[in-house]
Amino acid sequence: MDVLLIDDDSIGVFLTERLLKREGFTKNIASYSSAEAALSFLQQAEPDHLPQVIFLDLNMPVMDGWDFLEALKPQEEQLLGRCFIYILTSSLAHSDAERIVDFPLVAGLIHKPLDSRQIQAVRTQVEAPDPAGPTA
Amino acid sequence: MSYIFQLKESEQRFRALFENNPDLVLFQDGTGVILDANPAYLQALGRTKEQVMGRPLNDFLPKHLHQLFAQKLREAFAVHKVQFDVEVQFVDTSTTLMLSVTKVPLVVEGVVRGVHVVCRDMTDLFVSHRLIREQARKLNTIFESITDAFFLLDQEWRYTYVNGEVERLLAVKRENLLGQTMQDVFPAEESGIFYRHFQQAFQLGQAVHFQAPFRSRDIWLEVKAFPSKEGLSVYFSDVTEKVRSQEELYRQNQDLQQFTYIVSHNLRSPLANALGLVDLLGTLDKSSPDYDQTLDNLRASTQQLDTVLRDMNTILSIRDKQDVDEPEHVALADVVRQAYLNLEELMEQCGGEVVQHIPADLCVLGNRAYLYSIFFNLLSNAVKYRSEERPLRVEIKAVRQPGLGVEVVFADNGSGFDLEKAGPDVFRLYKRFHSSQPGRGMGLYLVKTHVETMGGQIKVHSTVNGGTQFIMQLR
User: Which residue of A has its CA nearest to B277?
Assistant: First the structure.
């Protein structure tokens, strides 16, 4: 399962990466410290190379997580069902949970730090057959 | 025959005048004995003519006036016309009269034969004068006893009444105000805020109510002015304390917003990392290379946490002026370098450069954490809003202007923004995560807050696709 981390905080990236590995996400884990770079990667990637899971930080200096999601809107149709975005933020603001409903690509909101239980829940959700589409 | 007739006619004319005179008239000899008295006089005494004739005037006067009347009589006999005012209650009467007394000597062949005493009853006039005086005094007492400062301006803006509270609040003497115009006394206020409101009251004939700073005394006044035919009645009071506490409340509210922001972002971020790293550490083999790296990261996170807490302490206490650390002299170049180092990676990624012209020994009076935050936010914005058409170039200049403080110009060649459109919103705090526009969220708000907290000012110029320039006046 290909995973993409978007987080400007290098310690945050280190931690998430190691935790994912510990839980068996041993395949490709790529990370971007800027949302802009991640965006241009996603915009140019072949459908086959799209990551299945994206962990997206919200609070970033250049383009923040919400800006990233807005910028991804044109590709929403194409990405839906292939790419699960999880917001991974240290913020506890309640407004975040209300806001994710505007973005169908967002499969969930996780407050840092990531833990085993949450990683397993992500795995279950991503690997489950898409109820809307044909089964794999 | 005709002489006698003439004499009689003259006598009758005199009698008519004497008898019908509304004034109290009597005729006295040198010893003060009454030789004649007219009906008006008899009525005032409440006596018949028989009871009066041949008796000294003193019999009908209260004792304390005997001397005065005797004295005046002597003066009249010395061939003077005598005039004096006296308050008198005739013996056995119940009313006090205010009399204007004239004593005219009657001189026949060089000899004073007696004195005519004409008393004009001035009681009514006197009473109404006294009433006016009393009302004026009462009014004065009222204006002096109200807690408001109060003054009256006439139609020409001259002070016609000034109470004691005005003297106290404005530190003026009323004798320097009365008769002068407001423009004479407070030339600095000409066309100022007070002047404008009073003019409005005069012109529209409407009461005005406003609050304004009175600069020369460094106080805030709440003013009510009521126009009338006479001019303008102005009441005001010192509301400095109220205004100051409102300002304080506003500042504290801003602090609270900052605090919430810091807690939800800056503070929780290293804490969440630390929690995760501890979790990870528990499952790692001590000999694995990841173990040491995890431990290093844990150390770094806890240090970060401590830094944020220290900064928060500074932010929360700096506004509370009593227990603020004295502002320190901070070497500007150092702080700029620190902020740059924290963004170096991003800066290099986008191929940007920062050129600074800051003398190494240039210090500004302020707070290190604020200065750091200012340059961190400005640099971060410069990266964020750089132009795609050219490599980012940031120029930071600082010069000390004697007597004015330090002017810092932070200029980039980025994408700029439409200042007209952004207007006053540039520095405003947006609710975070509220707008889906690529937002200027917190940064410039913090920058402005920090600059102003340190007693400085900030301005911005920007041209679309030209760049942005921030000009700060620091101390």
Answer: A15
